[in-house]
Amino acid sequence: MFTMLQGFINALENVVPNAEHRFCVMHLYNNMSKQHKGKGLRDLLWKAARATNDYMFDKHMLELKKLSKKCYDWLIEKPGSQWSRSGFRTTCQSDMFVNNHCEVFNNNIGEFRDLPIISLLQGIHKVVMRRIQSRRDKMIASYQLNPICPNAMRKVNNRGCIVQWSGNTKYLVTVCDGGHEIVVDLEARTCACRKYDLNGLPCYHACACIRWKNLNMSAFIHKAYHKDMFLKTYEHTVEPINSQQYWEKTPFPPPLPPVLKVQPGRPKKKRNKRNDIPPDSSTDALKVRRVGGKLHCKYCKLEGHNARTCPAKKYDHQFKQKEAQTGVDEGAKAQTGGQGEKAPQTTQGSTTDFSYACPLPSQTSHADSTRMKRVKKSATVSATQGGIFQNPTQAPRVTNTPLGIQPQSQTKDGKYVTTMRHLENAKNERKGALQKPAWNYEAAL
Question: Spans of biased composition, class Polar residues (predicted)?
Answer without folding.
Answer: 344-354, 387-411
